[in-house]
Amino acid sequence: MRKVCKAFLCILMVGCTASKTAIPASKSPVVATLDLVNVTDDKVMVSVDPGAFLKDEVSFFIPKTVPGTYSSDNYGKYIEGFKAIDYDGKELSVAKKDDNTWTITEAKKLDKVSYWVNDTYDTEKEVKDAVFSPSGTNIDKGNNYMLNLHGFVGYFDDLQEVPYEIKITRPENLVATTSLSEKAVADAKASEQVFLASRYFEVIDSPIMYAEPNIETFQINDITVTLSVYSPNGTYTAASIKESMEKMMTAQKAFLGDINSTKEYNILLYLSTLENDAGGFGALEHHTSTVVVLPEVMQKEALEQAMIDVVSHEFFHIVTPLSVHSEEIQYFDFNDPKMSQHLWMYEGTTEYFANLFQIQQGLIDETEFYKRIMTKISNSKSYDDAMSFTEMSKNILDDPYKDNYANVYEKGTLINMGLDIMLREWSNGEKGVLWLMKELSGKYGDMTPFKDDVLIDEIVAMTFPEVRTFFDTHVIGNTPIDYDAIFAKVGLEKSTNQEQSGYFLKGDIPFIDVDQENENAIFIRKGIELNSFLQTLGTQGGDVIKKINGTPINLDAIRPIIGQSFGWTPETEIEMVVERDGEELTLTGPVGTPTVNVVSLLPTPTASEAQQELRQAWLKN
After folding, report:
1. Is 88 helix (H, G, I), strand (E, B) or coil?
2. Cis link prior to 321 (omega < 30° from 0)?
3. Is the pTM of this model over 0.90?
4. How would you classify residue 74: left for phi > 0, otherwise alpha for psi between -120 and 50, otherwise beta?
């Protein structure tokens, strides 16, 4: 998964157990039916026929958590009108155990279950702990259906390994983009399609987007890539984005070399209007596809860069966790998940590759790459830098660890950078993290998981004894990484300069953010250096902005103020009311000319030949 800061993008618009033996009497597939034509009150009717059961009681589940999200989303809360129907069409007794679980008695009589599904996109502002949009669902009758199938199709206990047939009735003007194979059905109506999945995991691993045709296909070596775009106002076509995607993915494949775990890859791009629409921007990975959600109002250059950063991250997930993963992921329990301790690899390695390949393949220069690394160091300071990364990962669904999740993209990248440089140093430039992932991919692959608590031992055995010290100290342990020492190995050093900024953001880096628990709360970001405007005014990280010049502040109110700030002069007076430690403070003064100290990474003038060669091996080998 790759998240793009939600507040930042909004501001800029002015980021189980092993399988068991099946219980049914027959070996016929589970059949799920979705009606996308007869939509009622923005809801879709779904039925699931499991075949015959041999026991008297069974439970039906909608997932609580799905792989790649690292959050408890409770997709069952979007289900209404659940019914269990017997072979005579009569309702059976059902007990709802929690948001995601229904228990059915007299299961031997069960013919099917049926229920209505609400979508998530148009309820994100209303629902507490809303689902991240790329893992969510959309029901826009006759126009678009984003079917992340874990939001529509559930499973019966013990039947996760049984094949599925997904029968869909669709508006005839809409076409499907998906990695699921389609079953040929004799005499089928033009509006009917049947898709096949080998087991429930493949169901939830294969999203479907229905939209009017806006599709481009291109070939990257032996991988067929399909780009499907839903742009409600017709702002973007797949053809307008194809060139940048093809260039980027060609570079990715060149970077990966002989790592090749898929023959097809589907990019489902949903562009949000922002009006009662998806508001969580980024993407969610799958084995052979990704769902991307971004704002339709983005300028083309910004959209293309966002697609490069986001899609490259998701595509690199074909390495980890899709090819290299633990038993916790291979046998994922959708309703009682056991989390792996290796988010440093699943998300950190992936995000590191998403940046490293761009410098290696010439898509960005060294200055831009160093800037990105320094930004990640700055962003990582917003989180608990002394928190064990493996401990956080194992407990990522719980407090206080879940609030540090986004650090997997920041410090997770930096962990891999440090490991990469050290591996290069100890191997005379020959081996790095990409080499390591190729070795692990060769040993495991998508169907053979590793044991969670032995992976680091295996990595040490494959590499160098010093790797054990690095992991024990900085990944398992809670000692922050000394980045200066890492940079010195490759002849780089930091330099601080003062640069002008905006009042509330510098470029694409905001000084304020939106409280994810309360979208009406705008606060000053913690753990980053604030600009001179905010420092002189007297704000502190964590301050909640209550009013600016008498205007109560929420997400809607801050946007026009940010727009107005571009016209402020140094003499403009401001009154800002903030809440700090439960008390309200009134801060006043002229806004001045905002500046911020920017730390850059530069080659050391006196770098030795060995340091320069190691830097070259790191960035270009």
Report:
1. coil
2. yes
3. no
4. left
